[in-house]
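BACKBONE GEOMETRY TOKENS
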Amino acid sequence: MSYEELLGILREESEKRRLGNRRLYWIIGILVAIQAAGLGWMISTGSESMSNAVVMMAPMICFLGIGLGMSTRAKTALLASVESGDERIVGYLLEAMSSGDPEIIGAAKSSLSMILPSLGEDAMPMDLVQQSALMSRLVLEDEVFVGLVVRSFGKIGRPETIPILEELALDKKSLYTGKQSRMIQDAAKLALPELRTRLAREIILRKVEEVDRLRAEIDGRLGVKSEVAGVSVDA
């Protein structure tokens, strides 16, 4: 199987898993709402106490944290791709950090440790799902790996990453990592201006592209009018 085919499998499985997770959260959310309404009615009628209601709601609330794991097919494709060093796999590696599978997490961590330090300026930014999966795992990781990941946010971060970096740069125990680490703070301080500069540059480039597109449309319309005017004069 070619590397492009492996990437295709990872992309397909990621889309399926995300769709499945959205459906799962929707169903569990409805069940939680129904149970909450029932318990609310029982409390209002005096047939149930508030403390017991909280205990009864706890299992359903915990279900909201459940997601669909990685299929055997996707796991095989990921494990076959981790040694490639290809930047295109970074997003799938970030998402795999929340898979719950020790083998996948270990392989993803090893590959990220190899790829992230050498990311280019045109690296693909992570999406919100990948960022969420990564952040949920950082509290469990050592400061060397966390510092490496945080430093890479300058290249793969997104606008929603800025408040995370701002918090990580503070000289205190972080809510995101559960650590107070000078290494992580320094990485965040370096990544923050890099991310802001990159995002500003992307905004400017989009505006320039919009102006170029509008100019092309205007030129095209003027060209049509000129042709029409020329025909009418010849006639």
